[in-house]
């Protein structure tokens, strides 16, 4: 009898131990989580965007007339002085090639000009002879009129003949000069691209034309590296003052509506420390821009001025990349909760608040927020602890422990 009691006791004890072990392993253990306290802190809301620097006033020097631009000796980065430094030199272009028919037409035009010159010279010699005779006749009539043997009407007629022939000679001389110039023009049209002329004439290309810098600064870009034939208005070189920088940021239109002139800007991402600026202008019109992913975005250009000394900008130059953070709102001692603790509960924001080692879902109302924290309007108090980045193992009433 005692032996049987001992066996039953051992069996009951073993079963109880197994049940206790199973209960121990089945009992849910606390979920380790990261906890953060709700505190009061300084908070700043910014609009962040990639941007680029640019010289405020960039001058593009263009060709004022058509011609050949010689290779420039100015390199990018060279200093230039307003109205003194020669940035480009132009010369006239060479004559163009002639097709056979046009060439024959030009030869015929030159021959016609030669004949017109010969005709004008013969006409001038005829009028010179007529003038010589008229002057001799006038001299005889004047002598006879002085003796009283010639009437006054005959004298007047002789004077008129002489004056008419003098005028004819002047006209013939001018016409001869016209024909000679026409002949020179016809010969010039026969010039070849090499500068020679089938008429045997020379080629005077004239003096080169120098273009000087419109301002004091540096060469930013050379549009033409080598000698080239250009038309009037062709851009040749860009000049600007690298010390006179500003920033151009293309903001999303949904962000641009929050930006106002005069707002503070923090500038980084350019290879140096953080520098500061202020918004000078938000342009009133936007434009369509396609992103690298092919998404159409409506952008608004915003202009920012540097406020720090030039020395703090280091090696920043024209068209450099920077990242701008435009401050749209800031506050002191703002009750804030980390962004990582927020999740959506229906159409409201909520957090898991730690209460006596368990989570409690706490709907909250938030105000301003940035990429780190959000302003708590209601639902939490200073010192409350919330779960950061809650996983799917965390729900309302879950036992939790602070992750080490």
Q: Which key terms come to mind for this protein?
A:
404 residues; alpha+beta; 28% helix; Elongation Factor Tu (Ef-tu), domain 3; OB fold (Dihydrolipoamide Acetyltransferase, E2P); single chain; 4 helices; conserved putative lor/sdh protein from methanococcus maripaludis s2 fold
Supply the helix-strand structural class: alpha+beta
Average predicted local confidence, pLDDT: 87
User: How many domains?
Assistant: 4
Stretches with pLDDT under 50, minimum 5 residues:
195-205
Please give the largest β-sheet.
Answer: 6 strands, antiparallel, barrel
N-C termini distance = 56 Å
What CATH architecture of the largest domain do you see?
Beta Barrel
* SSE order, one letter for each helix or strand: HEEEEEEHHEEEEEHEEEEEEEEEE
CATH superfamily of the largest domain: Efflux pump adaptor protein, beta barrel domain
Total strands: the figure is 21
Radius of gyration: 49 Å
Helix content: 25-40%
How are the strands ordered across the major sheet? Answer: 2-11-14-13-12-15
H/I helix tally: 4
């Amino acid at each position: 009898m005692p032996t049987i009691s001992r066996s039953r006791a051992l069996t009951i004890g073993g079963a109880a131990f197994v049940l206790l072990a199973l209960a121990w392993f089945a009992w849910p253990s606390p979920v380790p989580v990261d906890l953060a306290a709700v505190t009061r802190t300084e908070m700043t809301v910014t609009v962040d965007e990639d941007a680029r620097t640019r010289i405020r006033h960039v001058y593009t020097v263009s060709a004022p007339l058509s011609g050949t631009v010689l290779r420039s000796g100015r390199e990018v980065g060279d200093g230039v002085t307003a109205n003194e430094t020669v940035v480009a030199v132009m010369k006239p272009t060479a004559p163009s090639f002639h097709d056979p028919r046009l060439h024959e037409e030009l030869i015929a035009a030159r021959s016609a000009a030669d004949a017109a010159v010969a005709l004008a010279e013969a006409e001038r010699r005829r009028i010179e002879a007529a003038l010589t005779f008229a002057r001799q006749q006038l001299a005889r009539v004047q002598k006879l009129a002085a003796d009283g043997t010639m009437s006054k009407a005959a004298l007047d007629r002789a004077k008129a003949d002489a004056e008419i022939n003098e005028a004819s000679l002047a006209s013939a001389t001018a016409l001869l000069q016209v024909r000679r110039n026409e002949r020179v023009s016809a010969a010039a049209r026969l010039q070849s691209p090499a500068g020679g002329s089938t008429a045997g004439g020379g080629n005077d290309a004239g003096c080169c034309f120098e273009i000087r810098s419109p301002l004091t600064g540096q060469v930013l870009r050379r549009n033409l590296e080598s000698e080239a034939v250009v038309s009037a208005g062709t851009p040749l070189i860009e000049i600007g003052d690298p010390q006179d920088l500003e920033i151009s940021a293309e903001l999303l239109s949904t962000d641009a509506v929050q930006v106002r002139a005069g707002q503070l800007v923090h500038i980084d991402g350019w290879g140096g420390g953080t520098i500061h600026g202020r918004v000078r202008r938000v342009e009133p019109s936007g434009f369509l821009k396609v992103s690298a992913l092919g998404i159409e975005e409506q952008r608004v250009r915003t202009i920012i001025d540097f406020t720090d000394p030039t020395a703090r900008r280091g090696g920043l130059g024209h068209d450099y990349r920077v990242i701008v953070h435009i401050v749209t709102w800031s506050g002191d001692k703002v009750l804030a909760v980390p962004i990582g603790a927020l999740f959506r509960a229906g159409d409201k924001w909520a957090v898991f608040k730690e209460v006596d080692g368990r989570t409690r879902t706490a709907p909250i109302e938030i105000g301003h927020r940035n990429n780190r924290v959000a302003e708590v309007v209601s639902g939490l108090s200073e010192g409350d602890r919330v779960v950061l980045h809650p996983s799917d193992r965390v729900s309302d009433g879950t036992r939790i422990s602070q992750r080490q």
